[in-house]
Model the fold of this input.
Amino acid sequence: MRNLRNAIFYIGVTGGFTALMFWIVSKGKSLEIGREIVAHSSKDTLLNQFIVSILNNLEHPLALLLLQIIVIIIVARLFGWIFRKIGQPTVIGEIIAGIALGPSLFGMYYHDLQVGLFPDASMGNLQILSQIGLILFMFVIGMELDLKVLKNKANDAVVISHASIVIPFTLGIGLSYYIYDQFAPVGVEFLSFSLFMGIAMSITAFPVLARIVQERGIHKTKLGTIVITCAAADDITAWCILAAVIAIVKAGTFASSLYIIMLAVAYVLAMLFLVKPFLKKIGDLYSSSESLSKPVVAIFLVTLISSAYLTEIIGIHALFGAFMTGAIMPDITKFRNVFIEKVEDIAIILFLPLFFVFTGIRTEIGLINDSYLWEVTGLIILVAVVGKFFGSALAAKFVGQNWKDSLTIGALMNTRGLMELVVLNIGYELGVLSPKIFTMMVIMALVTTFMTGPAIDIINFVFKTKDVIIPRDILHNQFKILISFGNNEKGKSLLRLANSFVKKQQDKSNITALHLSLSDEMHAYNLEEYEKEIFHPLLNESELLHQEISTIFKATVDIETDIADIATKGDYDLILVGLGKSIFEGSLLGKILGFTTRIINPDRLLDKFTGKEGLFVNSPFDDRTRLIISKCKRPLGILVDKDLQTVNHVFVPIFNLEDLFLVDYAQKLIYNNNSMITIIDINEEIKKDFELAKAITELKNNYSANVALLDEKEMKAGFLAQQDLMMLSLESWKNLVDSQSIWLTNVPSTLIIKP
Done:
């Protein structure tokens, strides 16, 4: 009755008001009398009108901007992924993506299309959005700087850092003396040109350097601490110098710039002694993500924008204000992390690629069109490398570092990345840098950043040593297990499993927990805090299990290769990794092995004799698991975790002689964990093979109370529900799925082992 009443009301309201609208429109036609009405030509068909409308919509500034953003993000992520795969920072790929979308590549071969996608009239919108992205990015950079590190560890680092600024700055000014006549824009004073050349030579990209240090696993070493501190001091000093340089350039002379510099000093003092304490009080009250409400976030964002606005008005650029705001944010790791998470993704993924493309459109490689210009470009690169690389290395050697560490510091300080592009764009916008010199300097930034990784590899090769992150307390006569985990719950399941293999032999065993994170997701500021947070649940679990564990934490660009490398270097006897999905969530076999799998519906029994069909799913390859399997040369166990709590009841299906190695693992579970092992003889394979039968008979004789041997036909209803774990070989898993056994409908957690 109620539904009928609602239907009558709905029809009455919609029908009645529709009729009323039609009547009003009809009556409104009379209002057109005496007016000039522009009507569509009767020759235009509806299709033509539709096409014209679509074309007009495509030319609308907003539609064009959205299309530009889509293309830029896709191309930037693609190039970033490619360069990450070859061991280079993602930012290098994104910078090259920007250049590729500009006139240097895309415009060279598809000029009309490039001009149509990025017309001059649309560059203003791109520039504004890219500047907003840079403001947010510099805010994050400021937050990533740990000023406590500068206070506590700044002795040697400040000497190295300032030497790495003064030496290249001087060389840059010297270089400008020789190229000013030919390459400085008309009307630009030598002072302005030389100062910008000097500061451009002096920049170090703190974010890129920090990620390389993390990827190399040296962030906890003395070398890592020194180079991070050097880069932080370098960043702060360079941005202060840049602010002064901008003031001098805008004022024209040093004397004229004193008013701007005094205002800048007053601004910095106000930020340090007025704004910082105010923000700290708010941070103390709202230090968690739960209590960080929108009004509180608004206070900090308004502070950021106001600071950027003030520095822009003063004349030292909005980016300095954003950087300064980040640096004075409350010194609470969780608080900074919340803001970094809120700001970084949108800044890096959405806005920064716009800046790269905007820079790429300004970078015309075609301007460097003869050998002389390439010689000048080579000279610029040489001066940059000599000043920054060797300047930093010599300073490091002077304060007492060995040659290997000194050269490594030089190689790392020589990386310039995005920070260099920011400086160059400021110089270009101020009219200090001409298009040719701008292009040469962009090439220098790319080369010096690209060479960092290979330079460190060469240094390690020459000195014949490598930083090994394998714990030193692992002895060669121990049974060593490496567990590699992504999230805490899977890590705890892997630890319980590993503990079951060595529980009674802890004096002759070692368990190492490994966590690898993509370097793009890491921040130098919260690295130690993040590591503690990651391992805290596992360390608690290890205490409950009375199991000592070692830990390895590393940022990387290639998780699969690093797992294999660490396993090989540490000579581990078993590597355990988690798949992280239930056997019924997608095609497990497809995810592990890459071919079509029959997924069993747990609500019905599948029997090869009944003729009932399962659901065929053509699942894609799981690249990570496949690569780990292919690259790992040590015994590998893949745990399909269904909330594994205990390993008291384990069953082992045996398919052929190649499964013989499983007996050793079963014996370890019996001895160390008193596990009850049920061996399932699939198709009476054990009876057919003497070696297999002998090994299992010995196991039964030695542990008669713990071992049961069954044929597949002897399995009783409810047997699988009583099991904690199924353990089998990788090849047997293939056979198991192919056999479509009835007990596949309810398998527990599964350990798939590749010997």
In short: The radius of gyration is 33 Å. The first helix runs from residue 2 to 28. The CA atoms of residues 149 and 674 lie 50 Å apart. Confidence is low (pLDDT under 50) at residues 466-476, 580-621.
